[in-house]
Amino acid sequence: MWLVHRSTGVAIFFFLLIHVLDTALVRVSPEAYNEVIGAYKTPVYGLVEAGLVAAIILHAFNGLRIIAVDNSTWALRHQKKLAWGVWIVFAVLMLGFLPRHLMHVFGGA
Amino acid sequence: MTATADATTPAGEVPSFEVTLRIRRMNPEGTSDHAAGEEYWEEFKIQAHATDRVLDALHKVKWDLDGSLAFRRSCAHGVCGSDAMRINARNRLACKTLLKDLNPAKPILIEPIKGLPVEKDLIVDMEPFFASYREIMPFLMTDGPAPERERLQTPAERERFEDTTKCIMCAACTSACPVFWTDGQFFGPQAIVGAHRFIFDSRDEGQWDRLEILNDKAGVWKCRTAFNCTEACPRGIEVTKAISEVKKALNTGEI
Amino acid sequence: MTLHEYDVVIVGAGGAGMRAALESSQRARTAVISKLYPTRSHTGAAQGGIAAALSNVEDDNAEWHTFDTVKGGDYLVDQDAAEILCTEAPQAVLDLENMGLPFNRTEDGHVDQRRFGGHTRNHGEAAVRRACYSADRTGHMILQTLYQQCIKQEVEFFNEFYVLELVLDKDPQAAGDDETVSVAGVVAYELATGEIHTFRAKSVLFATGGAGKVFKTTSNAHTLTGDGMAIAFNAGLPLEDMEFFQFHPTGLAGLGILLSEAARGEGGILRNSEGERFMERYAPTIKDLAPRDMVARAMANEVREGRGCGPHKDYVLLDLTHLEPAHIDAKLPDITEFARTYLGVEPYTEPVPVYPTAHYAMGGIPTTVHGEVLRNNTSKVNGLYAAGECACVSVHGANRLGTNSLLDLNVFGRRAGIAAAEHALATAEAAPLDESAAAPLIERVEKLRSTVGSSGSESIAALRKALQETMDRNAQVFRDEASLTTAQEVIADLQKRYADIAIHDRGQRYNTDLLEAMELGFLLELSAVVVLGALNRKESRGGHYREDFPTRDDENFMQHTMVYGEKDGLRLDYKPVVVTRYQPMERKY
Amino acid sequence: MSAPELIDPKPRIRSGRTRRKAERWSWMFMRLSGLVLVLLIFTHLTVNLVLGEGVSQIDFAFVAGKWADWWWQVADFLMLLLAMLHGGNGMRLLINDYAHSKAWRSALMGVLHLSMVVVIVLGSLVIWTFDPCPVDADMSLLPSFCEDVLQ
Ligand SMILES: Cc1cc2nc3c(=O)[nH]c(=O)nc-3n(C[C@H](O)[C@H](O)[C@H](O)COP(=O)(O)OP(=O)(O)OC[C@H]3O[C@@H](n4cnc5c(N)ncnc54)[C@H](O)[C@@H]3O)c2cc1C
Ligand code: HEM
Ligand code: SF4
Ligand code: F3S
Ligand code: FES
Q: Using an 8 Å Cβ cutoff, are C353 and C252 in contact?
């Protein structure tokens, strides 16, 4: 779990670097921005984006688990169940998000 | 009288079976087949009983097959902390791990604990580990002269640090901690357990000195709540809980 | 080869060694040499408690404690020593508390106390709560606390150094009574490097613990091979009362792992296959809390008469099922876990299979009440001290009372530490010792190393196994002329075979194989001493029970056995018992 | 007989309350920023990727439409800031763990700090100085309200 948290954190960080840079193009010109953002709409980036969302969900909910464990003895004693909980929430959210997202990606592009 | 169910028959003809031990070895002086310092796996097959512990199996290897196998042990019942090792990729005491709980159909993997320099076979250099312990000033600190009789302490006050007094300094926790593997500077969970035992002792007056040490870079904030330590502890100490209590004390300034 | 010089060298970092080190290191330059890391010492295995007439929960006093100690030891106790032990007990416990030991507490915050075998109010009227404790980890807490204090005082440790020889300035047996024999130092083997170190010192203190590995079924650690006793013996010093070995009643059947007497102190009951509380027949007043020798014999007797449990009818049961689980968890957490881990028995609901296990050596290196080692009945060795289980001040006589050993470590460890340091301060120069002192050991070690690969030789494991099995069969709870003679023959044969022993590891570093060979040599020597003493003590007293002489014989045997090692074999002698206040009486509970 | 007079330990560190607070604040900050980030990021993700038509709707017009509202400006700025600080601090912890040589460590730290500054400055400039209706732009790319503004 610790490794998952660490690797997702790093992944998000690097994505964020790029993401901010490309968003910065908004300032340059609408054309440039749309061109770059257009790349996001291709299937490859669609998949990368799906991975990113997955990473964010895992990192976020595991982050919440860590915060809970730090603050409550109950959570500390049940941390394993909570870790399972993170995976379940992850599964549910991804099941909700993926079909929609992939539809947009493949359907809309 | 039900204690005599077959499974618990201590003496007598418990059926024996064959187990394979795969032991991670290293001879600092080299052997005829291996260079000095080279790490390699070696397999041994022995006959064992269901009631045997991994330590018994290691003894069979040492006593009957290869006397040069080096490992530490003393008490043989989990109270001296000599024989922490990685058994099937988990840190445990060899003397507290029964073969029957390990699926003897597969080879049993035995390695030295991680994060401390290997000296020979399963023996690691424990000095860095003990040095961290000494660092946190693990002794009662009080002001003023010693009292005539005992310092009073209610059972409830004692209960606060009961858990962390059980530590036998086996290093199973510290050498299971991923932060310790990557960063040898980290005090490691055992030292925090050792400090916890005094910080929460109502008789002690050195709490803030210890907390100060643990507030340091190499201290308690390095812990990423990986829980490996708690899972490894053969004494059932809630190590992560102890660490979290130390963090809480630092955050709130209350003990 | 390295030569070290200290004022005081302490061998052993268990309870006795570290308690002595705390005193000695404040006064003089002290080194502590230990074959184990200090916290691995077997004091950490002690469970039940440490006795002291603190009167925190029930009326009690040192005199009653002394009486119990003398009576428990079947009157073979030196009563002056027992009186010191019991009088200094309360302070010893308070010292530990002040050092930080987390004792269990009474509601009002004082050190709590519980019942233990043989501890009684007013000379045997009823059981008394005298044992101070910390759950069932009292020894663990003592060991940790002493180690912590040693860290605080920055005591100098040499960890994983095996002391293998004691050097005196002359042969203690050849020297006349008017000559002084002085200690010169010790020679040690460093496990990590294989290097031999010589320690020259004005005072040397042995605190190397017990010798339980003489037997097969034992509560003792693998490392308790009686090194200190055997080393002193090899240097020409006598051993006292070695035939008195305590067999603890409640070892986990088949394994020997100890379940503390505290289990019975907290209300546990022994039952045979018929469910009978058989101790009512053997000790009507204090029943299950009778002294250990009596309970162990009673159990062995039940099994012998066919009332044992299990498929082989070879053990009895310790019943805790009538106790509240919460109470068990609070007072006996570790030992119930042992039952779960090693036998798969749940003590809340099932009784635990138990059988006597070799536990404690009452005998050892003879000393005075200041820990000074004797080389015969009266003369001391200048600068040599011993304390703890390896010593025989004779406070335990023929049978040690539960909780009196941890007390012994602290009272006599402290006394010996002070005496050793003061002797060192009063001595201008240690007896001469140079690097040549290590030569015999180096030769022995090299000879052992040269056996690697030699075929057709004897294996350590096989000899040790044969020794332990013969001791279990022939010199355990019940002994007689025939069994002891058999043991003697087997040991003599094993000693011959030991000369042809071969090891597997030629290396210098962490050569535990070589050290096991050395330890086996010590075990063989000590076994011979145990058996010789037992064979010649034609009576039954305390832990020593001769079926062919089932009664105590004060006429002939109210004296300590002294065994000397001489060129042509062992020599037996006796030493009078110090009797002050209590005349021997029949021992009934 | 009296209790043993044990020598006082050498004072190893100065007494007094916690001196170096940095690691503790870092720890606190990770948790607090984490909590706030959960809210921000999930709203962000929901609005951008889930509601409406998902990614396919994102273009200049979409972004401009959002940032015209100062509320979104604040939210996105906060998110940017917190995420960068949180992530940057997380990366710092990682570098501390894995980079053992001093040189490596300071090099990586330099890169990290630089990238953080660049990204934060750039990002906030973009957000605060954003003009949804650049004058010389192609009308069709702009959000619909620009028509009112420009005409
Ligand atoms: C399971 C168990 C439970 C017990 N429970 C109780 C109890 O409840 N109450 C009670 O009063 N007593 C109890 N006892 C008895 C008591 O614990 C021991 O008698 C006592 O701890 C012995 O302490 P020691 O300091 O003499 O030796 P140990 O603690 O055994 O220490 C021996 C030291 O000597 C060192 N050493 C040995 N050989 C060498 C060598 N050749 N070179 C260098 N160093 C060496 C070792 O490294 C070790 O540090 C119990 C004993 C056992 C086994
Ligand atoms: C979505 C809400 C988020 C929550 C609840 C959250 C929570 C946390 C927490 C509690 C930690 C501390 C872990 C510890 O101390 O063991 C942490 C670490 C970290 N986070 Fe986040 N985080 C979130 C978003 C992000 C984002 C957006 C990034 C990337 C920019 C990020 C990158 C990191 C990194 C790199 C670490 C360090 C990992 C480590 O040291 O093991 N996190 N996160
Ligand atoms: S806390 Fe547990 S695992 Fe760690 S050293 Fe102590 S006993 Fe061993
Ligand atoms: S394994 Fe290590 S990260 Fe913390 S919870 Fe234990 S110390
Ligand atoms: S041998 Fe003592 S803990 Fe395993």
A: yes
Q: Do residue B52 and residue B119 come from a single domain?
A: yes
User: What pLDDT does D54 receive?
Assistant: 65
B169 and B116 fall within a common domain:
no
Question: pLDDT tens digit string along C365-394?
Answer: 999 999 999 999 999 999 999 999 999 999
Mean pLDDT of all residues belonging to chain B: 90
Give the residue from B81, B96, B124 where a domain finishes: B124
Quote the ligand 3 centre to B172 CA distance (angstroms).
Answer: 6
Q: How many residues does this entry show for chain A? A: 109
Domain count, chain A: 1
Annotation marks residue C292 as catalytic: yes
CB neighbourhood size of C555 (10 A): 7
Find, among C468, C436, C451, C439, the residue nearest to C514 by Cα. C451
Whether the Cβ atoms of residue C537 and residue C557 lie closer than 8 Å to each other: yes
Between B209, B222, B253, which is nearest D15 by CB?
B209
Number of structural domains found in chain B: 2
For tokens 């002994």, name the residue: C479
Residue C228 CA, ligand 5 centroid: distance in Å: 22
Q: Which chains touch B (3 or more CB pairs under 8 A)?
A: A, C, D
Do residues B131 and B247 share a domain? yes
**Among residues B124, B151, B175, which one ends one of the domains?**
B124
Q: CB under 6 Å to ligand 1: residues?
A: C 11-17, 33-36, 41-43, 45-50, 138-139, 162-163, 207-210, 219-220, 224, 227-228, 258, 260, 359-360, 388-390, 402-406, 409
How far is C356 from C258, CA to CA, in rounded Å? 9
Query: In this complex, is the C-beta atom of A46 within 8 Å of any C-beta atom belonging to chain D?
Result: yes
Rg (CA), chain C: 23
ipTM of the complex model: 0.90
Q: Which of B102-116, C88-102, C461-475, D119-133 has the lowest mean pLDDT?
A: D119-133
pTM above 0.90, yes or no: yes
CA distance to partner chain C, nearest, from residue D9 (Å) = 6
Q: Please state whether at least 3 CB pairs lie below 8 Å between chains C and A.
A: no
B74 and B155 belong to one structural domain: no
Catalytic residue among C130, C292, C541, C587: C292
Nearest to C472 by CA among C223, C218, C294, C273: C218
Asked if C302 and C280 touch (Cβ cutoff 8 Å), the reply is no
Q: Is residue B34 part of a domain?
A: yes
CATH architecture of D17-144: Up-down Bundle (1.20)
Tokens 């401390």: give the residue. B116
φ and ψ of C164, to 5 deg: -125, -15
Helices (H), C115-224: 138-152
Asked if A77 has any chain B CB less than 8 Å from its own CB, the reply is yes
- Whichever domain contains A65, its CATH number is 1.20.1300.10
Q: Is B7 part of a structural domain of the chain?
A: no
Of B6, B73, B149, the CB nearest to C222: B73
Domain that holds residue B193: 127-252
On whether residue B39 sits in a domain, the answer given is yes
Query: Least CA distance to C45: which residue of chain B?
Result: B79
- Residue B230: CATH number of its domain: 1.10.1060.10
**Residue B56 maps to a domain:** yes
Report pLDDT digits (tens) over C233-258. 999 999 999 999 999 999 999 899 99
Q: B154 and B52 in one domain?
A: no
Look-up: residue for tokens 């009362």? Answer: C241
